[in-house]
Amino acid sequence: MFNYDKFEKVLSLSSKYKDQFSILFYFFLKKVLYSFSQLFFRKIKFKGKGYYIYKNKRNTITPQFGYAHRIYVYAFSLNVSFLTKTKILMFGLNDLDIKNYSLQVYNIRPINIFTGRGMRFSKQVIYKKAGKISLYR
């Protein structure tokens, strides 16, 4: 049951039964209301020679990572801006859209553990794997 207090301007949800549906509904309602007051963003960096990314007016991202054909990521519900040649900033009002689109871009070319080239999120720790070491040094 919903209650709206006119003096305190508070919307409250109360129920006699605490079932999973009401808990889940309250969680998503809080997330939606929170998203209108907060701006979410993700920063993606990429490293490697010959790698570049295009973006057109409709926020369609097209990375060129040595593939024969272009791979398109259509991001209609968020804004994309380039900070530098190798840094992309995705921001918008919906946190789920930001996560989904940034993971689509990230999965095109994830980090190679041997060379360290590829896409990564900012503040993501990358461990580089050691190469083969000769037995006779």
Overall description:
This protein has helices at residues 20-35, 95-108; strands at 2-5, 10-13, 40-47, 52-55, 60-64, 73-74, 79-82, 87-92, 118-121. The protein has 137 residues and is α+β, with helices and mostly antiparallel strands. It has two domains: 2-35, no CATH class; 40-121, Alpha-Beta Complex (Outer Surface Protein A, domain 3), CATH 3.90.930.12. The strands form three sheets. Strands 7-8-3-9 form a four-stranded antiparallel sheet, with helices on one face. Strand 4 and strand 5 form a beta hairpin. The chain is elongated and about 75 Å long. The chain starts with a strand and ends in a 16-residue tail after the last strand. The model has no long low-confidence stretch (mean pLDDT 80).
Number of helices: 2
Q: Structural class given helices, strands, pairing? A: alpha+beta
- What's the β-strand tally? 9
Output mean pLDDT.
Answer: 80
Q: Uncertain runs with pLDDT below 50, 5 residues or more? A: none
Order of helices and strands: EEHEEEEEEHE
CATH classification, class level of the largest domain = Alpha Beta
Specify Rg, calculated over alpha carbons.
Answer: 22 Å
Main-sheet strand order equals: 7-8-3-9
- What do we call the CATH homologous superfamily of the largest domain? Ribosomal protein L6
Helix content: 10-25%
Q: β content, as a range?
A: 25-35%
Main beta sheet strand tally, sense and closure: 4 strands, antiparallel
Report the CATH topology name of the largest domain. Answer: Outer Surface Protein A, domain 3
Total of domains: 2
First-to-last CA distance: 75 Å
